[in-house]
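Can you give me the bound-state structure? Components:
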Amino acid sequence: MSYILIVEDEVSLTSVLRRGFEAEGLRVDVAHDGDEGLRLALEGEYDAIVLDVMLPGLDGHRVCSMIRAAGLWTPILMLTARDSEYDETEGLDSGADDYLTKPFSYLVLQARLRALLRRSARGRAERIEVGDLVLEPETRRCTRAGAELTLTAKEFDLLAVLARRPGVAVSKAALLEEVWDLPGDSDPNLVEVHVSALRRKVDQPFAAAGGKLLHTARGIGYRLVPA
Ligand code: CA
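Here's the bound-state model for the whole set.
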């Protein structure tokens, strides 16, 4: 059974969410301010956290970045203020996995939360190895030949999608859908930019040892092949 933390001070909203989640068989805890939310989140037992930005005490961005700073990668769905593009960017920068702008429909929240829970279940305790490259989705750690690599969230997700299918050419369209939740016909430049950044971190430092892992599949996309 999935265990969800809701951090939100609006009592009517939290009770609607609690009732809805519990009706789906989820276990729910509620915190009504940022400090309490952070304290509960740091216990680390949740499968996902629904976190409002506007909170008494610590605001949602602070709570989110402190959870990440503590090394916890529980999926976080951030609830942001209406018409505030700034909030959304800030939410993702502070380490949230997804955001929803208020007011939202319960069905949309439910779908987005389910997607986060699926990702979190898949990531748990999983260890992906391709040659000397190791990815641990739960802790978001990535090492190559024992050396720790510092990857952004999207770089990690992109590498993980390729690493789960070693040797297979994955199209840019599939990467846009899986890593960014974007339609496959979105601008492939997003993928190319991230692949370049990944090459600098994953391949370049190991080039002398002949250790190229990330290969271009001409006309298709990319594949990760053990060196
Ligand atoms: Ca609020």
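A couple of observations. DSSP finds eight helices and twelve strands in the chain. The domain at 3-124 is CATH 3.40.50.2300 (Rossmann fold).
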